[in-house]
Amino acid sequence: MSILRARPHSAGPRSRALRLAGAAVATAAAISLTACGSGDSAGSDGKVDVVLGWVIQPEFASVYAAEALGYYDEAGLDVTIKPGGPEVNAEQLVGAGSAQFGVDNGSNVFLSNDVGTGLVTLAQLEQETSLRLVSRAADGLQGPETWAGKRIGVWSSANSLYASLAKHDIDKDTDVTLVEQGFDMSQFLNGEIDMASAYGYNEVGQILQAGVPMSDLTIYDYADDSTATLGLQLFGNGEFVEAEPEKAADFTAATIRGQVYCRDNPEECVDFVSDAGASIDRDFMLWQMNEVNRSVWSTEVPIGTLDRNSYQQTADVLTGTGVIENQPDLDAVMGTEIYDAAVAKLTDIDLTNTGFAPKENLVP
Hints:
alpha/beta
């Protein structure tokens, strides 16, 4: 049984964003993540919370590895890991001060900051999003110019899709049919949608696991349209990061160390995720961990690098296509000093992909 990653879809990127501000405090209280108090005063005793962008799975293995291997303890941090899910929004909760740290896609952080959450990126684990669009090769859907009239499955995190539609003057309300995509790939497999949103390390595997060969699929990468945005990242509550920069650097360093460990020890990291409560079969998680590693270690830059050009590209994509309204203040969102301080604590390990070799012939 494979993992389910779909997120509830809203009417559009702006309607979701506008709801964030009003709902943040109420949601934070309802989810019972208030144990640490407000963002600027929490953590004085080393207790911090980290909220994940989705449920327990290898996407977040870095956090579970850092906890299981004692990296957080060594840094003097008492970390509580809070899994995400359909009713949990990591950006809202961290922005409201109900948790100090989060792990999720960079485009969601930009969207949340557009309504004033003041989140700060601490490390960029993926330089580009792993979000893809999947269709059947027989349908010939090679790019946005072929999407008119098609039924496209979407989640609220499909910011690159909204950007591509706008870039090609495709009206999301009239030229295509956006379908709320459920918690598995059944709508795609049953022919209810022509194109499905899919993360390369998750839903693509679900389709393959259902018996559809890769040769029968077209995997559309938003990078081909220059609408790819920042992928998985660590972020923090801005007030907490400003008040406790050393703790923010310690958390960042320990989590990066966990990501490096998972690069070199994927099977053990799958065990950490399983022990944390993941309800996925082990073979599928090992495939996921391998694909996460392929994505995280796909570039030559050191893990976690905050590349200003990449941040500017994401800002331009999201503002230029109306996904967010305001040009982000990159100096405010990029926690470069925290990242640099974290890297200074990691001189004993290789932060590059020089020695990385993905496992071959793994199947989901």
